[in-house]
UniProtKB/TrEMBL annotation, chains A, B:
This is HTH-type transcriptional repressor CytR. Residues 19-73 form the HTH lacI-type domain. It comes from the Bacteria. GO terms for molecular function: DNA-binding transcription factor activity; transcription cis-regulatory region binding. Residues 20-63 form the HTH cro/C1-type domain. SUPFAM superfamilies: lambda repressor-like DNA-binding domains (SSF47413), Periplasmic binding protein-like I (SSF53822). Coiled coil: none annotated. Keywords: DNA-binding, Transcription, Transcription regulation. Gene3D superfamilies: 3.40.50.2300, lambda repressor-like DNA-binding domains. SMART domains: HTH_LACI (SM00354).
Length: 357, 357
DNA sequence: AGGTGCGATTTACGCACGTAAAAGTAATGC
DNA sequence: GCATTACTTTTACGTGCGTAAATCGCACCT
């Protein structure tokens, strides 16, 4: 009562902190159940009461307890996202589009990163189950993932895989790129504009890597060319793609090989290493379209327009994948026990012709 | 009782799902409080009972309800992390080191990304408060952040800023790079090995950008050179750094300027754009150390070793920053109401001399 | 004035678990 | 064989809020 500042003016100091709805109710003279209803749907409360509540909330610092609110609701309003690796702009873009789509759908996303470790991936899945997220979006690690964990998630809650699809989990919703189309697309382009490409692969840490290899071979044979794949046997099967691309091509260039070939890299990060190897050997990929060295990638990594020379590649439609994955998951969340029509959504890759090929 | 498979063998099908500890207790014949104690500290339960519980848990599918457990504990075991932007490998590396350090300290981290939007940043802070995380680690957006939200967080729970420090929040713990040292370091190097550098800046979206500008000017004057800053007036103050670097230098190169200068870019992504501009104009940065074009950056972006030419830069000690930020936060969490000795922890940048300068 | 109907309040219970106190049981020592 | 000790179980209450049912207050209408 001795606070002389509590007129109509804005309160100066920190507002009084209120911990529970109970206190809030006695602080602004509205019953607790009414407050509860107000927070869930202000329109279910008489407008004069809404005004009183708003005014009261303005005078104090109160944040509802998330745990307590969600424990009694059927839905937590959260979706869990697992990605395998953070230090890759491809995944960050994917994650960004997922977060935005989820936000628009009214969900809070909890992201966990596997950091290339199946144990961490498993822990993340447990966290999601124990927090009873409404659904989970998972980009698996690769063939080292612990699929039992994915199965448990899938059995327990709405579940959609994205980006990379394990052959060991049929019958699960998936959203990703049609690598047969995308890789076929750029192989066809390379063949049309110049010589048939060599495929610079990577260690098969990833199902997509294999899918692209297979797609490359198929398209080459369809066009009547002999496929040639290099780079599958690397020193270490990790995520250091650029050094891998560099090492493989440096090896060949040093022996005078491949200096006038077309080279299709399994992804853009490998291609960046490839460009570096070319520069090291004084080569200028893309200068002579036909008959000269050309280098192309896959994914449309954000840096592609700024490499030297700018990298020709196929873009994955990251935004569409993110949006579709969220849309599918939200649909499953709302449907609950509908007949399980599995849905595989694949997006086409679109060609980005730049300077390098 | 008609399940013929329940011998000693591994159960084949999906295990029976158990939702609550109550059911669990009656399923394996151990009282619920005992189970509760088991989950918190198995050593507080007799070993023969532990064995019975373990055996029982092996036969069913049970995950404790996170909300219910945390609601009654003083601590949630979670720390909230806010980063301003995802599509930047600098932040992903920082985040990675934070996640690992937090994991080692026994905390679960909840990451929220501001996506360059102060409103989203504010929402993330609210989420943290409502989930009563044990502490928050925040890398602010820049001068467009809503600092009132940060103040509220800081007043409510253990709070540490990292990476970027608003001048408007004195008295708050901070962990980051000593930009005076790091920028001074590379300015000194550039001057020693060649001509004094021009500073290619960026729109001041970020406090670090300003700090580096100031540090550049100071070091130049200390060495008796005239500072020259370009690029502060950009088309749009967003996170498209590479195009910015390209545009500014393309502008100058087109008029025959700067082609034989040393150019220090405010960060590596701007430098990547700068390298591209150089290549476009047939320039080869770093070839002639003294008297020729040189380009250097700041941060040691993961791609620096793979640019053409490889980029000379100063590395921020991302791992140390992440670890220190977590360590400081954990200390504040454990200390609670200790005397508030503010702590500003700054790490030195270390020179990475490569080819471009 | 009395009846009607809507919104608000009161009351009471539930969620899944933590936790403290009291009472029970088993293992150990002499 | 009995007391001591250690662990368990039982019982009961608390956490902050959702939610349903019953009660209450108020403006409106005839």
């Amino acid at each position: 009562m001795d606070d002389t500042e509590n007129g109509a003016g804005k309160p100066r100091g920190p507002k009084p902190k209120i911990a529970t709805m109970e206190e809030l109710s006695s602080a602004i003279g509205v019953s607790r159940p009414t407050l509860s209803r107000y927070f869930q749907d202000p329109s279910s409360v008489r407008s004069s009461t809404v005004a009183r509540i708003r005014e009261g909330l303005d005078r104090v610092e109160y944040v509802p307890n998330f745990f307590a609110t969600r424990m009694n609701r059927k839905s937590t309003g959260m979706i869990g996202v697992i990605i395998p690796y953070l230090n890759d702009l491809f995944f960050t873009r994917l994650l960004e589009s997922i977060e935005i789509a989820a936000m628009e759908a009214g969900f809070t996303v909890i992201t966990q990163c596997s950091h290339s470790d199946p144990a961490i991936e498993a822990r993340a899945a447990e966290t999601f189950m124990s927090m009873s997220v409404d659904g989970a979006l998972v980009a698996p690690l690769g063939n080292q993932s612990d699929f039992e964990i994915h199965e448990r998630l899938n059995a327990r809650l709405p579940f959609v895989l994205f980006d990379s699809r394990p052959s060991t989990m049929p019958g699960v919703d998936f959203v990703g790129t049609d690598h047969t189309q995308s890789t076929g697309n750029i192989v066809e382009y390379l063949c049309r504009v110049g010589d048939p490409p060599v495929f610079l692969a990577m260690p098969r840490v990833n199902f997509n890597a294999v899918e692209r290899e297979v797609a490359y071979v198929a398209k080459m044979e369809e066009l009547g060319h002999d496929p040639l794949i290099v780079g599958t046997e690397a020193v270490r099967p990790d995520w250091h793609f650029e050094p891998h691309g560099f090492a493989i091509l440096d090896h060949f260039f040093s022996r005078g090989q491949f200096a006038d070939r077309s080279i299709l890299c399994v992804n853009d990060r490998v291609a960046i290493g490839a460009l570096q190897a070319a520069a090291t050997h004084g080569l200028d990929p893309g200068r002579a379209r036909r008959g000269g060295l050309r280098i192309a990638g896959h994914d449309d990594y954000p840096l592609c327009p700024h490499t030297i020379p700018a990298l020709t590649t196929v873009a994955q439609d990251v935004e569409a994948i993110g949006r579709a994955a969220v849309a599918r998951l939200v649909k499953k969340i709302r449907a609950e026990n509908k007949p399980d029509d599995q849905l595989v959504t694949l997006f086409d890759g679109v060609l980005k012709v730049r300077e390098s090929a």
